Amino acid sequence: MVNALRVMWRITRLNFRAQLEYRAEFLMMIAIGAIWQVSVIVFATVLLTRFSGMGGWASADVLLIAAMRMLAHGLFVLFLGRMHALAYRVQEGVIDAYLLRPMPVHRQVQLSFFPTNAIGDLTVAVGLFAGALARSRHDWTAGQVAFLIAGVLGGMLVEAALFTAMGCAALRYPASNYWSQWLEELLGTFGSYPLNVLPKALSWLLTFGLPLAFVAYFPAGVLTGHSSTLGVPVWLAEVSPLIGLGLYLLSRLLWSWSLKHYTGVNG
Amino acid sequence: MSAVPSTWRTARITPLGELLAPPRIAGAVVQLTIQIVLVTALWRGLYSGTGGQSTAGLTREQAVSYAVLAVLATRLRELDRYSGRDTVIQHMHFGTIVYWFLRPLSPQRYYALRALGDQLYGLAWAVVGYAVCLAAGVIQPPVSGGAAAAFALSLLLGQWILYYIMLLIDQLCFWTLRNSAAMLILIFAQNLLSGVYAPLWYFPDWFVTLSSFLPFQATLNVPLSVYVGRIPLADVAPQLGLQAGWVALLALLTRLVWSRAARRVVSQGG
Hints:
A: globular, B: globular
């Protein structure tokens, strides 16, 4: 275990140095993380100033959804986000080589490169998070702080579960990359706002069809006292961090199954 | 081989690849449908709280039409040349960029023809989506015949500007070898500053002023605002002039960069 951690740390350090090889690309990658997140903030601010209160949520509460999602996303990109490029790794035949090495394939995929853009993602996310907490009028108890942390980690796991499932598809279908990009945009656009702005059928779809509501909407709803208007039983919103964990574990089972059925680009 | 078939053969590479992969077509249909349904629901939901009042000069119908057309327009942008290993960054990585300069077809022409085929294919998607949305009453027809004509011209100029911007980012590879970060920055900047995320009219004045100095708003915000009638027909001419100005400026710039780039490529040992 200690040895595995040491190896992971050394590979990560090497990957970081490899990213520094192309200086302009390195700096721009940090910028891209920041720009993407700032665009979400600008969009949210614009909507909040033009349309007073979204779906009955005060602007500080909406900012908490956006902040929790952004932080969850930043942590996902940093720790579990390498599934995006998997379709290309399959195309290049790299997975076949991973299978021969004495390290789990999933871990090798995660250690394939350092996600420089996560630095920008997390910097802006922490800023927005601090801003949202400062604007929040709630008195934070130790239990709520613990739920907040669990909510962010649960959100990270929901996103990781979705992209691990996309990675499973990528092992078999090269075109799945199309879906990954689209899914990321969808999570960014609709993951940061109260879903009760949408008609019931659509918010239901984004809860049980695609579990986007569990990323930040439900945990933030519980914390800001909107539990009764979330459109689901209160207990379901309260266990959303556990649902994140459950979904991630399921996605890892799917990954193991998919890897067993992997045939490679040469059939 | 005459010029027309070679032009046609180059332009159809990406569309042919797409048509031969039914899952991609099905995927595009599902994604576009979900995106349009969600965007429509979001804007209608936001306007339901305003009591039917227009906001920033846009009524509910105008806002929905603008947002749905912006979603359809994203189909025109970038198609997947990555899977076919035909992006500039990949050619740089594998060293195959040299073949672009050794063929009877010049790299400028090859790049332009590929982009033309991609954008025409994307346009077919956008037109079908537009027809369906119009028939379903999701979007309104153009405010007048004149606005429709001005919209078509403005959209053409907007796509032309977008082509040159994408080309510039690809040309960056000749110096930096990599451009994936720059490409992502460009896509986000284009989304934000051209009105894909939200019509630019909702943004604060300083933001609108800032974006008026950049080419992005000319790619989408101008044609869509003309379409929904937010820019009246009488004010269209200066906007079209500005778009044409960007086209001319970017054409000169990319031409200059192509000639500089050619000097950096070494073939067969120099």
